[in-house]
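Look over both lines:
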Amino acid sequence: MEAAKHSRGLESFLAYLRDMEEGFRMAQADRAEAEAASQDIFHAIELWETDAESCARLGWKLREVRRRRRIAKDTLEQAGLLVTWIQKNHAVIKELEQILGDMRKAERHAEKRVYIPRTRILEDIREPEPDGGAS
């Protein structure tokens, strides 16, 4: 008989929190990279002697970089709310991780459960062994 795995929901929730933190860190790096690339393009426009075609290419490149920055910034705004909560509630999350470990341990124990009779009451109704003898 397959027992329900009650730990799966908690496991999924904790994985979601870890994914949000990782996504937040990646968005921070993406935003910083896009801001640095924007500055490079701004300086190129300011300092280089460029023709109209080069300026157009720089403009298109700037548009691409600014769109990447916007995606990262939106991610930071949205994920930041949960990441702030995660940081404030670090102790709670550690408790949930401990509970998850305990739940998994209990599930493993339930899977391997064997009942050992305390009395001899069941001996007279046991099925005979295949060789024809009783146990």
